[in-house]
Amino acid sequence: MSRDPTRFTHALCRAPAPSAIHGIRADHGPDPDFTGLVAEHDAYVGALRELGLAVEVLPPLDDFPDALFTEDVALTFPNGAILLRPGAPSRAGEVRHIRASLIVHHKRLLEMTGPGYADGGDILRLADRVIIGLSARTDRTGAEELAGLLGKLGYRAEIADTPPGVLHFKTGCGLIDERTILAVPALADCPQFTGLEVVQTPSGEDAAANVLRIEGTVLVGDRWSATHAMLAARGIAIRPLPTDQIAHIDAGLSCMSLRW
Ligand code: CIR
Predict the structure, then answer these.
(1) Which atom of ligand 1 is nearest to the CA of 252?
(2) Structural domains present in the chain
(3) Separation between Cα atoms, residue 96 and residue 208, nearest integer Å
(4) Which of 36, 164, 177, 246 is the most exposed place for a label (fewest CB within 10 A)?
(5) Distance 233 CA to ligand 1 centre (A)
């Protein structure tokens, strides 16, 4: 298998509920501002639409503060989808809500049954394989079950480590072109990146690593000017987007959509 893993026609997002300001965060820091959070989500959906994707925005789920981060509860591909088992107990119930939407779009819907866990934020798709990062949310049992399900859809999976203190594998890295990864220094030597070019986030800009590439355009947080300059110097088209509020609840740009 070799295809551009960032060529998408569809995205599935979920509007933030007022409860989103209570989303999980590791540092017990302040709540985000709800109006600002909604504005960031709106800008994100608008950018995906401008890039040509058909975006469906599901209604908010007030019982699930983190449900706007649809990326974590499923994996979606052109030939099928996989329902995951998110590792945070407060997020487990999000899966049944996404199921109904995915059935509409994906005839082939596979499902993790446990006992392990995997979050979509730990899954990085490359042209020829998928990397599953082990993290506080994705355990080895879950990663191995998921690797088997990916195999059924024709995708080869490799399991990698996520550095301590990094929430999800993709919190620390993202694809910026078909064979180049932007990664925080702690992930730059990841053995599963062998054969790819790895460029490191500039000093002080680790949080820029959670980029989202949509075909020729890389969505990147708007405050990371050194990262913008570095990507521009490589001839990469960038689309800066505001992320200050979602950053309060440990999220970045990949988290807010499922894409296929
Ligand atoms: C969480 O901790 O689950 C949310 N507050 C943030 C999820 C971010 N998702 C992602 O990195 N894929």
Answers:
(1) 11
(2) 10-259 (3.75.10.10)
(3) 31
(4) 164
(5) 30
